[in-house]
Specification:
alpha+beta, Pseudouridine synthase, 2 domains, 4 helices
């Protein structure tokens, strides 16, 4: 589902669900993004953290801004990367040819990811990604630039994969951890079953 409403869709969003469960969320936060601290692309599965009171909202927003939230993803990409682990540092900006996507460009904002290859098959690589910065479409744009697009991410150059739902790609937010009000929080989420189907091919 969408994280928050946009001008292109009237469908129910995560923000709408929050308002149903915690009506007070409407009284604070950014308009149409009440309770939303960060976001996931609709095609990306996994963990997202929301706030249900203003104090928590402000604290979490600052932690994301200051890069004090550890975010890890699992992705299956086409082909094999040139090394088993590495750090990707590339400038990302909005694509001039397609405003729905991001691209690597000189005048973009620096994006930083660390990756490690977990498993390889003949055509795919399962990788773990530690997101240092949190640019829009960061992993997707970086993987396209490396010629290893995320499986089924046709917006970013991948081939259509019929093993995967049409509204999904092989990118999953599987781990979030942070300190909040002097307590440590850590959350994990198993990847969707279709990851296994792709790796078994």
């Amino acid at each position: 589902m969408l994280t928050h409403p946009n001008s292109k869709s009237n469908e129910k969003t995560l923000r709408d669900f929050l308002l149903e469960v915690i009506p007070d969320v409407k009284d604070w936060g950014e308009e149409n993004r009440e309770g939303i601290v960060h976001r996931l692309d609709r095609v990306t599965s996994g963990l997202i953290v929301c706030a249900i009171n203003h104090e928590t909202y402000i604290s979490l927003k600052n932690k994301f801004k200051d890069r004090k939230v550890n975010k890890k993803y699992l992705a299956i990409v086409e082909g094999h990367l040139t090394s088993e682990s590495g750090k990707i540092e590339l400038p990302i900006k909005r694509s001039e040819s397609n405003r729905s996507k991001r691209t690597i460009g000189k005048n973009g904002r620096l994006s930083i990811s660390e990756y490690e290859v977990i498993k390889k098959t003949s055509g795919y690589s399962l990788i773990s990604i530690n997101l240092i910065t949190g640019r829009n479409h960061q992993i997707r744009a970086q993987m396209e630039y490396l010629n290893n697009p995320v499986v089924n991410d046709t917006l970013y150059g991948a081939e259509l994969n019929k093993l995967i739902p049409s509204n999904a790609i092989c990118l999953h937010s599987n781990n979030l951890n942070f300190n909040l009000f002097n307590d440590e929080f850590s959350f994990e989420s198993p990847h969707p079953e279709f990851f296994n189907k792709v790796l078994e091919v």
